[in-house]
Automatic annotation (TrEMBL):
Its main location: membrane. The keyword 4Fe-4S does not apply. It is a multi-pass membrane protein. One of its GO terms (cellular component) is plasma membrane. Pfam families: BPD_transp_1. This is Phosphate transport system permease protein PstA. The gene is pstA. GO terms for biological process: phosphate ion transmembrane transport. SUPFAM superfamilies: MetI-like (SSF161098). The chain crosses the membrane at residues 21-46, 73-100, 120-141, 147-169, 190-212, 259-284. Gene3D superfamilies: MetI-like. It comes from Peribacillus asahii.
Length: 292
């Protein structure tokens, strides 16, 4: 039986080569355009903000004078926010993923829950802000506190962490589980000692990327009512605070031209913070990905 007609293949080959060349050129142009825009943006931010990055910028609170404006309250506020978001989102996200993948029955209801969690990962962030405003700020009367904002941001990143953890747990080879059961281990022992150590690179990588999103998001905090300008530090999770994106938004909305450069310096700090967190994710993935 003749499966390949070499005459037809030879006849269509020039068209395929031309189509391949055109698509390769389009992909190259798309990549070049993205890198060009990114390069211009970074050059603009660096040239504007690098002159304001000194020790006083990190030590001063926000001020109405651009030469005295600092990022101390916003930077400490972002750290407070992550101290709430990280444990809440990681514990709830990992627990949900373990239950759905290891304990929940495989029926239409479980599939319905998984489908809705996946859809929640694509919901606009401002919707989570409205949810946080209704539940945490008004119903639970937490006001504009670190706890209210942290729980709101936890809801925002929770679907991403659940989906990433589910994928990581699902990718663990079934043979590892069967070998553990064959040695007499219980289901919980198998999860703790076999499944989670094998899935930890994917879980931590997805979680850190989700937490990086929580650091840079502004819309939910605007809806919750987090102030843009404060000159004190929070002492408990029930105190009012501000964060880096809100402070940068405040500076960019001011009419004085000098505040644009101060905002660029704030963007540089936020950029370095995000690069640091993403670097941790890459390091963890590279360190553990060949473990099994």
């Amino acid at each position: 039986m003749k499966l390949i007609d070499k005459t037809i293949v030879a006849k269509k080959m020039p068209i395929r080569l031309v189509r391949n060349t055109i698509l390769k050129g389009l992909f190259f142009l798309a990549t070049t355009f993205g890198l060009l825009v990114l390069g211009i943006l970074l050059y603009r931010i660096f040239t504007q903000g690098i002159g304001y990055l000194d020790w006083d910028f990190f030590q001063n609170f926000a001020s109405r004078r651009p030469e005295e404006a600092g990022i101390k309250a916003a930077l400490i506020g972002s750290i407070w926010l992550m101290l709430v978001v990280a444990p809440v989102a990681l514990l709830l996200g990992l627990g949900t993923a373990i239950y759905l993948e290891e304990y929940a029955k495989k029926n239409w209801f479980t599939s319905f829950i998984k489908l809705n969690i996946s859809n929640l990962a694509g919901v606009p962030s401002i919707i989570f802000g409205l949810l946080g405003l209704t539940i945490f700020v008004r119903a639970l009367a937490l006001e504009r506190s670190v706890l209210a904002a942290g729980l709101t941001m936890s809801l925002l990143v929770l679907p991403v962490i659940i989906v990433a953890a589910q994928e990581a747990i699902r990718s663990v080879p079934r043979e590892l589980r069967e070998a553990s059961y064959g040695m007499g281990a219980t289901k919980w022992q198998t999860i703790v000692r076999v499944v989670l150590p094998a899935a930890i690179p994917g879980i931590l990588t997805g979680s850190i990327l989700a937490l990086s999103r929580a650091v840079g998001e502004t819309a939910p905090l605007v809806v919750v009512g987090i102030p843009m300008f404060i000159a004190f530090l929070p002492k408990t999770v029930f105190d009012t605070f501000t964060v880096l994106p809100m402070q940068i938004y405040n500076w960019t909305s001011r009419p004085q031209e000098e505040f644009q450069s101060v905002a660029a310096a704030g963007i540089l700090v936020l950029l370095f913070l995000l690069i640091f967190m993403n670097s941790i994710a890459v390091f963890i993935r590279n360190k553990f990905q060949k473990r099994y």
